[in-house]
Structures
1.
Amino acid sequence: MDEESQSYAGERVELRNLDELDIAFDERGLVPAVVQQAGSGELLMLAWMSRESLELTLGTGTSWFWSRSRQELWNKGATSGNVQKVRRVLVDCDADALLLEVDSPGPACHTGHRSCFFRAIAPMGASAWEGDDGRHDAGDSHPSDGED
């Protein structure tokens, strides 16, 4: 294990086997999984994992999730070709959320956006940032409203 994979947020990571962890799956047997681009830290998406999808992810090295709408397992990017290679899976302190660090070669969002987080909520009492029409290119300092 290299030095980068041994730490997160400046702290040492404790390496554990899945069987050593008591993952807090909810009443549906699911746990939220945040997906982050390795290296850049871009937040790409939030999805849900079952025990089976977590085991598939750890076993195959690609991201597997549980589709709540289709009620089935899905291998992220298998249809589009944008398969996410999983670098590592972290579990939070309460074991009720996961973080997948991935190499995502293309859009992570089903809308075609790089990230599912391409919309911002305007502050209370404002329709957008002052002097802002709400539309931005990817290189702008404010998030895009997704109306590209």
2.
Amino acid sequence: MSELRALTGARGVAAWFVVLFHLRAALGVSDGVERVLAKGYLAVDFFFLLSGFVIWLSYADRIAVQRWRAIPGFLRRRVARIWPLHLVMLGFALLIVAALALTGRPLTRASRSTACRCISSCSRTGR
């Protein structure tokens, strides 16, 4: 199957829109830009819709021919693609928590939540 560059680009833009949504307060942008970035949460649905379509486009023929026998291979490939990035981002989160603890900064609920959202958003941009 050939890659659909337009969809890949749209997924990338949507992912970055979500990242900017989470970082909008720290960016120090104008009120107008902040209002636009405040709608970044909407890009999550768009990103997952496009991702589902691209996955379906990639595997539909195999699943149509092999039926249920194609599912284990599909799941192995998905886990092999997603799990390494998950581990890297989990390690990054642990480093942030350790750095905050070692520097004596409090781990408030708000700081944990903000750090988790930021790391989660950044990990979605991985391919």
3.
Amino acid sequence: MVIGKHEAVQADKLGGNGEGSAQLMSWLGDAELCPNLSLLTTITLEPGATVSDHPHHGEAEIYCLTQGSGDYNDNGKAVPVKAGDVTVCYDGEMHGLRNTGDGELVFHAIIVKG
């Protein structure tokens, strides 16, 4: 199956307790999700914006950064990240992300169950 950007759904507000402005482009609707994939989204964080710290249970989340730079919270440890980096938050761990750059921070977020 091929799903083009024209079929994606755009949201303007990032959920949770994140700060600042973010845009989400969800690539798969409920009908397209495979049994072990619960999220495939491109997220754009404006300067200073955050994905609030949050845990994962029964799943892992992967961030593939494609543009910009920021600080990634890896279980309470701040780690600088930039375009080209990949982060993984495994089952039972916690993570978050803050755009510390002057421009947009763009990344793909993928949640795999199990």
